[in-house]
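Quick one:
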Amino acid sequence: MPVLTRLVLPHAAPRVTTARPADKGDVVFGLLRARWHDRGLELTGFARPQGLDTRRPGSAWTWLTLRHEDADAPPLHLRSRPRRMPEVTDDSARPEHNHDWSGFTVLLAPGRLRRDGRWLLGDWRIETTLFTRPRAVRVRRHYGALAPHWCGSGEYPPACWVDHDVRLQPYFEDGRLRLRLERPAVRITRAARTAVGLGLGGVADSCPAGTVLRLRHRQSDAVIEQPLTRGGDTFTVRLPYRPFTAEGRGRGDLEHWDAELLRPDGGTEQLCLDERGGPVAGQHPLPDTRDRVLYLKHLADGRLQLCVQPAVGLVDRIAVRADGFELSGHCPEPAADRLELVLRHSGTASEVRGPVASGPDGRFLARVPATRTGSDGAALPLRKGIWEASLEPPDGAGPGRSLLAAPAALPAVPAAATAGGKRILLQRRWHDTLLVDSTPVLSAAERSAWTQRRQRAEHYPAARRAPLRDAVLYDVFGGRGYADSPRAVHAELARRSAPLAHLWAVDDAQAAVPAGVTPVRVWSPEWYRALATCRYLVGNTHFPDFLERRPGQVVVQTWHGSLLKRIAHDVENPWLADHGYLAALDRETPQWSLLLSPSPFATPILRRAFRYGGEVLESGYPRNDVLAHPDPRTAAAVRRRLGVPDGKRIVLYAPTWREDQRRGDGDGFRLDLRLDLDHARRLLGRDHVLLVRPHAHVREPLPGAGDGFRYDCGDYPDPQELLLVADVLVTDYSSIMFDFAITGRPMYFFTYDLEHYRDTLRGFYFDFEPNAPGPLVPTSAELLGALRELADRGGGLPPGYAERYRRFQAEHCALDDGGAARRVVDRMLGTQPAAGRSRAAPGARRNRRQEKE
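Output:
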């Protein structure tokens, strides 16, 4: 028996009194889930002590005490069952303590709320006591109340009829869980549509002659009173539609009518919905209105509320399928036959859309996918985070409609599907609003701050003592995909059949890797082991700040761009330093074995900006080999994956990011699109498509993408393939210009904020205006006009830019001969790099000699 069980249970139940002050924030209590089954109400929650470890069974024990509003009623004590719940540790976001055994489950049998054969009706306060043992000889008690979860049954616990006329309703008041055991005086048991309105029926304890149904309009002083037809303890009432839209009512987005029975003596009773005999809640189209319904809403507390509003997707059946969830429900005509399902990520606003099948009488069927299709056609799990679900017109011409769970469907959530090793949950919030929660690919036990601290401080150092293995770990922008120079290095190693294992860092299962490559989840135990034991690490951005290169290990920093805008220590504004970037960079660069340089121009800049004293290899960027020797078959395959029609010219717009455009939630940067997309479509849509590729730091989608003209390529794995098929590039100050210059195709520079970017944000490494290999255009109208003119004259470079383009190529693209990956792999597999020198690969030296000749 666990130690706390032995010490506590033999004694009396916890002596929790209302006079005892609660601990001041030293314990966090919460309800996670509530469900009913044949034995009663099961509550699952946690009691997490802030400064105490509860990682072992028996290190924490929770009791619940129920106190009736009648002080003379004896308290009811509920013993819980401890549960291991790593999510409690994860939710704490603290690395110092493990709280895996802070979870508990407790069962309340409804019969315990009876005394002497009668129900103890009224409100019950729930007090929570946590027992811990901070020292071997001391048991400590902590007091508090269960707070609501952010979603699901932990936010709005379900009620249950525990007798034919008695219901038990868990609810929260002032953030504390309570119970209400009630015998509703009026129960609405049925609703039926008539020719001119609705007919309601129910049961009432007292319904004398003259009793009426009274509805009060919240948005005005209007009152509707309808007489009841009585029959013993039952009644019926007719509710015509017309008063809901009379005198200008019914035109707002949402109008509420509060319902009650009014007796002749002036007494009133609330209306409780009783749907044990069939559904009562529902929405009914109002005649002579444009898409307005009368919605009989079953509130979380069981009461009836009437709303006049646009039709919603009221889901009454939920089924789990292999590829997600199938929802069927009711959305009255004419809405259902002109809507589509939309999932919208609450953080990035990216969208997943799918068709909605309509049936008779406003029925609909929709599939909520657990996957999304990337711009390259690959099926990937939904990105982690919350996806809001709605029904919306495909053309955006009308408002979206929430997907709500009808009372009959509430027990079916949460529902779970699996995609790419991730759990995708169909969940509810605000009682009945459906949403999708794409959980992290790492389990709670793997991702918690406590585990991550141990991985860095203990497991990674221990793994560094294991023998190095002949393997390569590749990383592109922290796990974004199979792309960039690491992709080209892998392809070269595979071409040589090098005896190496190939591992690829993948974040959130958001990348597909080719056969022969093993995906490794970023921040997972296997990722830490790979960093410690792989002989070669190849990445195009920053490595983890705890990385310590060991003897015999080769760390290749390919970097990811040539240099117009200033980087790292060369940036003169305080943004980078204020965010700790430069300090982290100074800790990282000594761990590099080799830094790649795309050109002799870039070499001294990279060394100075990174304050890097190791070897710099002037090899060119391996990622550009595909542009130096373009393959028409690859280009045709890329166009097919994108869905670009034959004969359409491709304009690729690839702007950089801006440090002063950080998103409000702090996750990435905004897509500050200054291009007039409607004008672009009118001017270019006949014979062009527009691909938009934001910088990797930008976290927002392209508005209106998927219309046959606009293509959002923000998630396309490898931008080099986009450059391969683009007929013209539009950028601003992005280093993508250096890559595209290899193709010799035209470039335009949309420089609407040139002075601000150059003089305030970043600064440039060379005088951009006289040396840019294409026109600098300050306005959207001028840019679109120039693109139209370019197409009308059959392409080619803009007049007057051929010589400038040639000089730009000579300065920045001299090493882009298609052999960069070969040169990098030769050096990587060769002798250990000699520190402190720059080195041009042999092939690169030959190219430079030929250039001079």
